[in-house]
Each structure stands twice: as C-alpha cells, then as structure tokens.
Amino acid sequence: MDNESLLRLVELLHKDKDIDKDIVFQGIEAALESATRKHLKTSEPIAINIDRETGDIVAMQGEQEIDLSDLGRITAQTAKQVIIQKIKEAERDVIYNDYADRKGTIVSGMVQRFEGPTIIINLGKTEGYLPKSEQISNEFHRPGERVRCIVGEVKKAGHRVKILLSRTHSNFVRQLFELEVPEIPEKIVEIKGLVREAGYRTKIAVFSEDPNVDCVGACVGVRGTRIKNIVDELNGEKIDIIRWDEEQEVFIPNTLKPAEVTGILLSPENQVATVVVPNDQLSLAIGKRGQNVRLASKLAGWDIDIITEVELEREREREESGGTVEEDVDGTVSSEDGAGSEVEETSLAEDTGSEVEEASLTEDAGSEEVEK
Q1: What is the pTM of this model?
Q2: Which helix (H) or strand (E) holds 252?
Q3: CA–CA gap between residue 275 and residue 311 (Å, rounded)
Q4: CA separation for the pair 129, 135 (Å, rounded)
Q5: Angle between the N-to-C axes of helices 73-101 and 21-40, in degrees from 0 to 180, rounded to the nearest 10
Q6: Residue 72 CB: number of other CB atoms within 10 A?
Q7: Is-contact 183 209, C-beta < 8 A?
C-alpha cells in the first residue's frame, strides 16, 4: 500500500467509524511491529513509526533500518488481520465511551428484531437491548416502529458493546418532562420527587421559587398539550402532577390527589400520617389495589393511614365515653371497664332487698291476727 492510500484509509476510518486518527495510526504501527517480529523470528524490540502527514513508514531494529517490502504476502496478511482487530477494538471503545456518557438519558431507535421476549433496537451505529423486564406491560411493538428508551447499563462484551435500555425506569418519565417542559432544564421549575408503577400510574412533585410561575400549569401546558404528549408516549399511563410543599401537613394531602382530604394528624416519631377523607372518597384515596396510597406514601416518605369521617366520629365518641360498649349475642351489655357487672350486682341486691321486705310485712300481719 502506498503512502497516499494509507492516509486515505485512515481518513475514511476516522469519518466512518468516528475513530481518532492517531488511534488508527497506532493500530497500524502495532500490527506492522507484530508481523515484522514474526517474520524475522526475533524477540528484540522493533520500532515502527508512521509519519502522520506524509504516511512514510520507518521500521527500526535497534539502529538498523528494516525494509518492510521484504516481509512477503503472508506477513502482510497477518498485519492486515491485526489492523482489523485493532480497528474493531477502537470502534468498540468509541461506542462504549459515547453511551456511557449518555447513561440515564433518552435515545431513539427502531425496532429491528425480537430475540425471544427481548427487543433489539437499532440505535444507528450499534444495537440496544430492551429486555422483557424493562418493557411496559401493556405495550406491544412491531418491527420498524420507532421507540424512545432510557439508557440503562452499558458494558463491554468481547468486541461488542451491550447497551441495556429501559422504558419502565422512573427516570424515563423524568427525562420526558425535561424534554416537554423547557422550564425544567432552565431551572425555573424543579422536580422534587417522582415515583412510578410503570404502565399504571406516576406521581411527580414539582416546585417553583418564582411566584409568577405556576409549576403545575407549566407541566400541564396550554390545553394540556405537554402532559398529553407524555401520556401518549407512555401509552395512556396516568400521571398525577403534585405541587410540592415543605410543610408535610400540606404536602401529604397533595400526594393523595385526586382524592380530597379533610384532615390530617402527624406522628413524627414514627413517621405515620393519619389522613381523614370523606366517606365517598375512600376508594379513590386508596386507589386500585392500594396503588394511589402506596405511591403517595413513597413520594412523601411517610406511612399513610386513611380513615373516613364516620370512623373518626366513632373514635371520638369512644374516647368521650371512656370505654367501648359492646353488645353480646344474647343481648347482655358488657363493658371494658367492668361497669356492666356492677349494674348486674346492684339489680340483684335490690331484688333481694324487696323480697326480705315483703317477708317481714307478712310476718307482722300474722302476729296481729294472733293477738286478736
């Protein structure tokens, strides 16, 4: 290969594979060095240097220059194989460094094929893997369909780079909000917390220090356009946008939205919040299979107990009466403080007293008749 062809090859690899020119030159030098040592059958160090501007190759063994044209066809083929291997390694490192820096960000690709339940997505220069565990349960994809995912784990596997993608990670929703709501990357609106059960529901707490900015309205957008784009991307997943507040008495009721809260009692020592809701709001506050209260608890960082207004009123009545009165099956009234037994004993005493009094009256009447 002449010098001009060598430089043209390096330039082509640089543009096509995005590999630094110096890395390509180093790979060629290492390949020629290995081939030359095998050809000469020597263990002495051999130095190969390629001029980056002219492409001239100089090979030295100690102080003696070596003519590389004498190496032969087999040695040249060996050098070619080593060069190809070095280029593949350099290409792998470029892809690895690129996607390692993009970890946690959204990438877009095309569904290429299926390997069992795993979806292989063409990302352009490489492929990404979307395993079943990282797919939204109620979604179905077709070959050729464009999808967006978040970059999860990036690792080297031989001469390839394995990129694991996800659509279920909570950061996927966070990244979607950053793309759709420009106030978030501009730091006007801040995401204070986000919890998610992929495919079902997401709760996101937002806050703005600017009093002129409605943080919830900014995320919803004009006529709901911003939130609609995110919901469409998530295939209809419900999203609750919650206004963050540093006061837990305000924030915890907000986390239970869309349910209404009429009262709250906090126990800071064990991080438990007892929330009172109207009777018709109980099922809404709990959510399907406890989903709403479970996500609210994760977002607030408190254990949340929900009671209705009727249950609260009953509890107050019990406290005021000083004990809980329960009626047995046979109709007898019993009490936790033993008041029932005292009532029963008193009635027995009264009955006994009346019987004694009647007996004495009878005896008096009998004595009067004898005297007559």
Answers
A1: 0.71
A2: helix 248-255
A3: 11
A4: 11
A5: 150
A6: 11
A7: no
Q: Cβ atoms within 10 A of the Cβ of 323, count?
A: 12
The whole-angstrom separation of Cα 148 and Cα 131 is 14
Residues of the chain below pLDDT 50: 324-372
Between CA 217 and CA 245 the distance in angstroms is 16
Domains of the chain and any CATH numbers: 3-100 (3.30.1480.10), 102-166 (2.40.50.140), 174-244 (3.30.300.20), 246-340 (3.30.300.20)
**CA pair distance 144, 130, nearest whole angstrom:** 15
Six token digits for residue 364: 């008096």
| Token couple for 146 | 């464009």
Element (H, E) at 87: helix 73-101
Cis before 182? omega within 30? no
Closest CA to 292 of 262, 329, 255: 255
Cβ distance 37 to 52 under 8 Å?
Answer: no
Contact in structure between 291 and 255 (CB atoms under 8 Å):
no
Tell me if 39 sits within 8 A of 27, measured CB to CB: no
Q: Distance between CA 187 and CA 218 in Å, rounded? A: 12
Residue 289 per-residue DSSP state:
G
246 contacts 279 by C-beta, under 8 angstroms: no
Q: How confident is the model at residue 2, as a pLDDT?
A: 65
Q: How many residues does the chain have?
A: 372
Q: Would you call 163 helix, strand, or coil by DSSP?
A: strand
Element (H, E) at 164: strand 160-166
Exposed / middle / buried, residue 116 (Cβ in 10 Å: 0-12, 13-18, 19+): exposed
